[in-house]
Design goal:
By secondary structure, the chain is an alpha+beta fold. It is about 50% helix and about 10% strand. The chain folds into two domains: about 1-85 and about 195-215, Glutaredoxin; about 95-195, Glutathione S-transferase Yfyf (Class Pi), Chain A, domain 2, CATH 1.20.1050. It is built from eight helices and four strands, in the order βαβαββαααααα. The chain has a four-stranded mixed beta sheet with strand order 2-1-3-4, with helices on one face. Helix 1 runs parallel beside helix 3, helix 1 crosses helix 8 and helix 5 (about 130-150) packs across helix 7. The structure holds glutathione.
Length: about 220
């Protein structure tokens, strides 16, 4: 059994998608980050950085004690390896491609797009310097993804945890982007939206907090 400490944001949804794709048995444990529950000591014993998502695997292979993990990239890698799906075998070039795009998502997409959303949606007054910089970076990142998807159907070739990490963060309306300018991203996104596992993950997210903006698929 896997416990998923979760809120339906971009980073939470990534793990929900993978667990649904893998059809592993898991328990969704909401951590209401809008009410500050991520600051509670009990949660921070599992997630030292005080952020969702985090997991506890109560039956880790080859270990006698439960294993807890935080950081969405580490969790995606761990679960995909545990199930032997959506992440090619160690030592293969295909695995390195998944890692390349997964690290790109964790290192660029989440930090810049989350800051853009923060400055657009939460700043008490518009700060032109930050908005210009972050809008330009968002467009640049969309171009990187568009160029890649003009060559391949999924970012690392086959559908993988890298697509699952990127998908919840592509919210064009919210991020001031027009997918008419990015037809390959549009087609990739429609392919992913049609996957039953992704639909189930979003439905579970809506049961937890229907108004979370990351759940909007426009
Ligand atoms: N690098 C982390 C980022 C996690 C993260 O930023 N989580 C957000 C929700 S998407 C959070 O817990 N925010 C609560 C807060 O800012 O206090 C990961 O990939 O897991």
């Amino acid at each position: 059994m896997i416990d998923l400490y979760y809120w339906p944001t971009g980073n939470g949804l990534k793990i929900g998608i993978l667990l649904e794709e893998l059809e592993l048995e898991y328990r969704l444990l909401p951590v209401n980050i809008r009410e500050g529950e991520q600051k509670q000591a009990a949660f921070q014993r599992i997630s030292a950085n005080g952020r969702i998502p985090a997991i506890v695997d109560h039956a880790p292979q080859g270990l006698s004690e439960p294993l807890s993990l935080f950081e969405s990239g580490a969790i995606l890698n761990y679960l995909a390896d545990k199930a032997g799906r959506f992440l090619p075998a160690a030592g293969s070039a295909e695995r390195q491609k998944v890692q390349e795009w997964l690290f790109w998502q964790v290192g660029h997409i989440t930090p810049y797009l989350s800051q853009l959303q923060l400055f657009k949606e939460k700043a008490p007054e518009p700060i032109a310097f930050a908005l210009d910089l972050l809008n330009a970076e968002a467009t640049r990142l969309y171009r990187v993804l568009e160029t890649r998807l003009s060559d391949v159907l999924f970012v690392a070739g086959d559908y993988s945890i890298a697509d699952m990490a990127i998908f919840p963060w592509i919210q064009p309306l919210r991020q001031g982007q027009d997918l008419a300018d990015f037809p390959h991203i549009h087609a990739w996104r429609e392919r992913l939206k049609a996957r039953p596992a992704i639909q189930r993950a979003y439905a579970k997210g809506r049961e937890v907090a229907a108004n979370e903006r990351s759940l909007a698929l426009q």
